[in-house]
Amino acid sequence: MIAELAARGTALLGEAPRWMPWAGGPPSLLFSDLLSGVLFRLDGDKTTPVRSFDGETVSAVIPLADGGSVVALHRSLAVFDEAGNEAHRIPLDLAPGLRLSDATAGPSGHLWIGVVPAGDEPLPGALLRYGADGVRVIQDGVGFSNGLGFSSDGTTMVHIDSDAGTIFRRSHDPHTGDVGDPEEFYRVPENSGALDGLCLDDGDRVWVALFGGGEVVCIDTDGAVVDNVLVPALRTSSCTFVGSTLYITTARVGASDLELAEFTLSGSLFRYETSVSGGPVWEGRIA
């Protein structure tokens, strides 16, 4: 199983792939270059920048139930209306040296937001929940918060701590957003790459990118790896479904000249046709 090129690119850190409308247009595949602060749209076999955020990182883009959207920036959330106009920003009170990471909406309408170190210092991160009830720290002491997702019925949440090399699973109330205690679901083998972004299919299997491993692995509901998709770029960073097509982002950040000479498509967008479809895309609600 080998992914094919969807669009050539040179993203430092491709992230946040999401099928959703933007600025009043029809749904399309959006993704970011996190470190450059640019949001892109896939147009045929090319990518088009649709929004730049100078001096910011862009780690997630989330649809809202009112037709608008939210973009997770370095330390704040940018809220856009249905026409793509920025309505306001929601600053998050983060400790110095931290930034936002992967984020998503859950079935209750809450936004779930990872917090990670912004530099090399190993500061403790967190998992936040934002909604009409304000910002809640659901879990602190997270080494490096990454991929987030929910089962098709909304009763299970999965969450990556890349530093721990582990995907955790916990019960989730799809109406209130309340969660149970985390339990280990999957631990990545040594020398396989770091767990990064993830998505779930309609059978609740987890597809997760292995940064440095050059692949996306599919993990069944019992925690066993049942499939893998090889990617012609070692720094595989995230993935999402559009129907039965799995789209995969990659990165160039930190790659040596030797690696880039061998993996010339690093930083590009890839796709793979699967035999399954993606699970629900939940919409957030902003008070």
TrEMBL record:
Domain called SMP-30/Gluconolactonase/LRE-like region: residue spans: 13-252
InterPro entries found in the cross-reference section: 6-blade_b-propeller_TolB-like, SGL, SMP-30
Family designation: Belongs to the SMP-30/CGR1 family.
Protein known as: Sugar lactone lactonase YvrE
Species annotation: Antiquaquibacter oligotrophicus
